[in-house]
TrEMBL record:
<keyword id="KW-0501">Molybdenum cofactor biosynthesis</keyword>
<keyword id="KW-0500">Molybdenum</keyword>
<keyword id="KW-0460">Magnesium</keyword>
<protein>
    <recommendedName>
        <fullName>Molybdopterin molybdenumtransferase</fullName>
        <ecNumber>2.10.1.1</ecNumber>
    </recommendedName>
</protein>
<dbReference type="InterPro" id="IPR001453">
    <property type="entry name" value="MoaB/Mog_dom"/>
</dbReference>
<keyword id="KW-0479">Metal-binding</keyword>
<keyword id="KW-0808">Transferase</keyword>
<feature type="domain" description="MoaB/Mog">
    <location>
        <begin position="174"/>
        <end position="306"/>
    </location>
</feature>
<dbReference type="InterPro" id="IPR038987">
    <property type="entry name" value="MoeA-like"/>
</dbReference>
<dbReference type="InterPro" id="IPR036425">
    <property type="entry name" value="MoaB/Mog-like_dom_sf"/>
</dbReference>
<comment type="function">
    <text>Catalyzes the insertion of molybdate into adenylated molybdopterin with the concomitant release of AMP.</text>
</comment>
<dbReference type="Pfam" id="PF00994">
    <property type="entry name" value="MoCF_biosynth"/>
</dbReference>
<comment type="similarity">
    <text>Belongs to the MoeA family.</text>
</comment>
<comment type="pathway">
    <text>Cofactor biosynthesis; molybdopterin biosynthesis.</text>
</comment>
Amino acid sequence: MRLLPVQEAVGMVLGHDMTEIIPGEHKKVAFKKGHIITEEEIPRFLNMGKEHIFIMEFNEGDLHENDAAIRMAKAAAGKGVTFSEPKEGKVSLLSKYPGLLKVNYRALDDINSVDDIMFATLHTNQLVEGNTVIAGTRIIPLVTKEEKIKSIERICSDKYPIVQVLPLQNKKVGIVTTGNEVFYKRIEDKFGPVIRSKFDKLGCTVEKQVFAKDDSEYIAASIKSLIEEGVELITVTGGMSVDPDDVTPLGIKKAGADIVSYGAPTLPGAMFLLSYINDIPVLGLPGCVMYNKITIFDLVIPRLLAGEKVTKNDIVKFGHGGMCLQCKECRYPNCSFGKGGLY
């Protein structure tokens, strides 16, 4: 690149996109990289505050910002990810469809440790809609050495993918609703409709809901009956606290479940239980899932639907960032809830 006064750049090729900002009106690219500058355009450049212009002149081994950003985006993009054309030197990565965003954040550290490079993403393990901007990358100067971009490509190749979106599976769901008060129809079930609504939004089908009294053997039998009918994920609602009549955890254990975690470092959601019977997740859901908009349910279920096996270590990591602020207007997932403890 060569720097020239704008008056001396007439007839030369612009080396990068030039942005025009008019407060209250627009911010847009006025002149794109490769534009041939004319004398008539000099006043506009000056009004934009551009008294000097970078003209394209490359040395051997140089790489322009646009080309560098495209190569980095292409190297990092995994399943379910596409990317935009460069704009002002930046390339955006976008989700092809709704799903669970996965970011290799350790590899991301390696990328951002290379001089001249930046690569920013949304937080890993969150749901994203289709055509959502999930990351962006560029180099800091207008030109960098190609060898630096090759080093980024090697990192991406060794630790591929850096960014991907996993589609959610349409699992068959079974619900066991516990509690004598509901079983004997003393009160109306309020938990089931909430769970159905949540799974509907995630693209899943609730195949069957059964009601169980506060008896661990009865709860275990209810869970087994749903498995026999072919469900692929079971939620057991209610009876998760420490009251004498709350026997749901024991019922889940008697059904043959391998308990991963009883308790989670999240609020709301502390009394959550995660277990598996073979490969079928069986979840004990505390009452907060019925009353609170966002809970541990919303952190764990998308990962299960994306085909992940959630571990005790995954649950432990929820503690840093596991406090929901109960905002008057919920902004989840654009908030801190469930987004700490990665390292």
